[in-house]
Specification:
The chain is 28% helix and 28% strand. It is α/β, with parallel strands linked by helices. The chain has one domain: UDP-N-acetylmuramoyl-L-alanine:D-glutamate ligase (3-Layer(aba) Sandwich), CATH 3.40.1190. It has a nine-stranded mixed beta sheet with strand order 5-4-1-8-9-12-13-14-15, sandwiched between helices. The protein has a four-stranded mixed beta sheet with strand order 3-2-6-7. The longest helix is centred in the C-terminal third of the chain and has 15 residues. The chain is globular. 48% of the residues are buried.
């Protein structure tokens, strides 16, 4: 079988908000985005039998590494800031887990949530890919009780040499922005997202501001992953970095207008929002 157009690698998760539980994970949000933009899509992931695979759009191909547990996040809101803790985690993912017929995939997003993606083998497993990384899961550690805390991270030389783009958020990086900028000097494209404040785009180390699209936020979960997937797809298929960033800003802002991935846009909705976004310059 032909490889999917877009492969996302990372854990699918169970996300608990009080009594409500819904499927999530950076790879899942990215895959839903790619699917709704018209690409054939696959997810390489790991989970236990309690993950509701039937809720994933059926045309997204899921390759699952069996695990004793599904990665589970519990969210709590204190003041203006959401906190998270991890109560269970699935298996790590590496080169041995990649299906042979997926190695020809043209576009790959590494999307860890709890440092579960080993890039060293995966970066060389694909034959001729564009590889991007939504790096949040490499910048996390688990503290007491599974509390998610910032963690120092140094990307390998191999990762810096092979990535076309890396995506971070101000929430991920905290006061280590100069460190992130150093990485952006080594990679063709870097993005630092800041939610409703927009984003910073680095093109060959040069810094540009990406203005936000105004929206009414209902649920911010997954917005950065929608941004990363949209940017990677638009750039891979011919947009320049600035146009890709504009499309990504629109897609991410649309995605927060409903719970979960319900508002992740189809191609036509994204194009309409992007046209209005351009007109508002």
């Amino acid at each position: 079988m032909p490889a999917p157009d877009f492969v996302a690698i990372g854990h699918v998760t169970l996300d608990r908000f009080g009594d409500a539980v819904r499927p999530g994970g950076a790879a899942l949000y990215a895959a839903v985005t790619a699917h709704r933009l018209g690409l054939s899509t696959g997810i390489l992931t790991s989970h236990a039998d309690d993950f509701p695979l039937e809720l994933i759009p059926p045309r997204i191909e899921v390759v699952s590494v069996p695990a004793d547990a599904t990665t589970t996040f519990e969210y709590a809101t204190g003041g203006k800031r959401r906190t998270m803790r991890v109560t269970a985690a699935a298996r790590p993912l590496g080169e041995a887990d990649l299906p042979e017929d997926w190695r020809a995939a043209p576009l790959v997003l590494l999307a860890p949530v709890v440092d579960e993606v080993d890039p060293s083998g995966l970066l060389t497993a694909f034959t001729n890919p564009t590889v991007a990384a939504a790096a949040q899961g490499w910048l996390r550690a688990l503290g007491p009780g599974g509390a998610v805390e910032p963690a120092p991270w140094t990307p390998s030389e191999l990762l810096l040499d092979r990535l076309q783009a890396i995506f971070l958020s101000v929430e991920d990086i905290g006061d280590r922005v100069p460190t992130a900028v150093d990485w952006f000097q080594r990679i063709p494209l870097g993005v630092l997202t800041a939610g409703a404040a927009g984003a910073l785009l680095y093109v060959n180390g040069e810094r540009y501001e990406v203005r936000p699209r105004r929206t009414g936020e209902v649920d911010p979960t997954g917005a950065g992953d929608v941004f990363a997937a949209t940017f990677a797809i638009r750039y891979h298929f011919g947009d320049d970095p600035w146009e890709a960033a504009a499309a990504a800003s629109c897609a991410a802002s649309l995605s927060v207008e409903a719970e979960g991935w319900n508002a992740v846009p189809e191609r036509a909705a994204l194009e309409a929002a992007l046209a209005r976004y351009r007109d508002s310059d």
